[in-house]
Specification:
It contains two helices and 17 strands. With 277 residues, it is mostly beta strands.
């Protein structure tokens, strides 16, 4: 992926940057691997808003991504590299030798025509290949990592993400997360070799509010701009400080820097080193 700068014909376009999509090889998705995406607008089954600042956005299809990588010992070939409007990473359409087609998250360095393989045994350390963590040497970049064997990948799926394998000891592998947190993951969990594609995604500047609305992001209003009935920071004449010892959420709970993770959570014992602030 490259970043494209356009002529500054307006204040929004002056600061905005765009994806050039030069790595995309197909314009239309595989019809058998897409489903309708119902827009929820941050609402629950009663129609009440449970997540603010969501709504609108352009219509799009969901691509069914193979996060389990459970086509074991059947070689597959990358036929197309495609854009997925639901994620920052590129996806690749894989044709397996038994005739099945699947989408996978494409890592950096994987191109059309390359072959990939997923196995429960040790296979070649090559971008796109998937195997259990116990077969990954120390210092290798991986992505698409399971937290529980067979449950599908949960870690390092976003554009540009990568996790370093620090080593394997006992029943666990030590992983350094994108946040710099070091934690233990069962060594039988599958992972894919390489860094997730499209690392330049983080450098794109939206530039104007209209592009955020197309992404389904509604405006966020400052608490200090509200009335006292609407927010703990609201009220007063003109601009002023919030007048509190610490900032609060719209529901009156402490905000900014407050730990929200349950100190009794079972997986706490698997975290060796917390992420850096």
């Amino acid at each position: 992926m490259g970043i494209k700068v356009v002529k500054p014909t307006s204040p929004g376009r002056r600061s905005a940057t765009f994806d050039d999509f030069k790595d995309i090889t197909a314009k239309e998705p595989e019809p058998s691997l897409i489903t309708i995406r119902k827009i929820q607008s941050g609402r629950n089954n009663q129609g009440k808003i449970t997540v603010r600042h969501q709504g609108g956005g352009v219509k799009r299809y969901l691509r069914r991504i193979d996060f389990k990588r459970d086509k074991f010992d059947i070689p597959g070939k990358i036929m197309t590299i495609e854009y997925d409007p639901n994620r920052g990473a590129r996806i690749g359409l894989v044709y397996y030798q038994d005739g099945e087609k699947r989408y996978i998250i494409v890592p950096v360095g994987l191109n059309v025509g390359d072959e990939i393989l997923s196995s429960k045994n040790k296979v070649e350390i090559k971008a796109g290949n998937a195997m259990p963590l116990k077969f990954i040497p120390s210092g290798i970049e991986v992505h698409n990592i399971e937290l529980e064997p067979g449950r599908g990948a949960k870690i390092a799926r976003a554009a540009g993400n990568l996790v370093f394998v620090m080593g394997v000891e006992g029943d666990y592998a030590q992983l350094k997360m994108p946040s710099s947190e070091i934690r233990l993951v069962n060594k039988e969990c599958l992972c894919a070799v390489g860094q997730v594609s499209n690392p330049d995604k983080s450098h794109i500047v939206i530039g104007r509010a209209g592009r955020q609305r197309l992404l389904g992001v509604r405006p966020t209003v400052r608490g200090t701009a509200m009335n006292p009935v609407d927010h703990p920071h609201g009220g007063g004449e003109g601009k002023q400080s919030i007048g509190l010892k610490h900032p609060k959420t719209i529901w009156g709970k402490p905000a900014l820097g407050v730990k929200t993770r349950d100190h009794k959570k079972r997986s706490n014992r698997l975290i060796i080193s917390r992420r850096k602030k």
